[in-house]
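pasting Spermidine/putrescine transport system permease protein for the record, 258 residues
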Amino acid sequence: MIKKTLSNIYLVLIFLFLYLPLFVLMTLSFNDSKSKVIWGGFTLKWYSRCFKSETIMNAFFTTIQITLLAALLSTILGTLAAIGISSMKKKSKTIYLGATNIPLLNADIVTGISMMLLFVKFTNLSFVTVLIAHITFNIPYVILNVLPKIQQANKYTYEAALDLGASPIYAFYKVTWPEIRAGVFSGFLMAVTMSLDDFSITYFTKGPGINTLSTMLYTELRKGIKPELYALSTILFFTVFILLLAINIKNNQKQHRR
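structre below
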């Protein structure tokens, strides 16, 4: 009984540690006062000012563009790479998987500085260099999400479809894709998450005039965080929360149908 009570208290403390800062952030986004400790009444003016701020909106749209483009391209490249790795022999597969894990274990600041030095040697830092950097560090996450699904799939079904006259593309779409679709989608969501809040790599590879939410927040910290940023963070949190909730509901419905 005591052990169960202590475990419940431990879980409550863990969830408080995780979600209490988010609750405080959301509360401050509705606070009419700029003070972090005094409640000045309920208001929505920070949300209104958030959408009217040119600096915030430019950083927001730049972040969304980089995130979606990087996630989409890295998902395509990562899926193709996972298919190629899965067809290799054991020794080659081990080498490539080891190479895939290196960017995950490497510090972001090291990756950011190395990419900056590479880009500066051949071109100027710009939106494109940030996009390439994001694609580069997203690909390993996609590979590691897709590869297990490919290994679980029955390769003989694909070969049977080819023997029956299906083209490789048609056989992939009809046979392989349904089995790896969940892994591809998980890799895409992982890429979105990693790109959305990345700071170190973005900071070192962005050009002048290019700002994402993370780099803009870093700049604003020197001046003091504006309440408009609380509102923006709350909107982003609920957007991701609703997306994940919809995905979980859809997956549960599929499991019940089976």
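The chain has two domains: 1-43, 54-257.
The radius of gyration is 23 Å.
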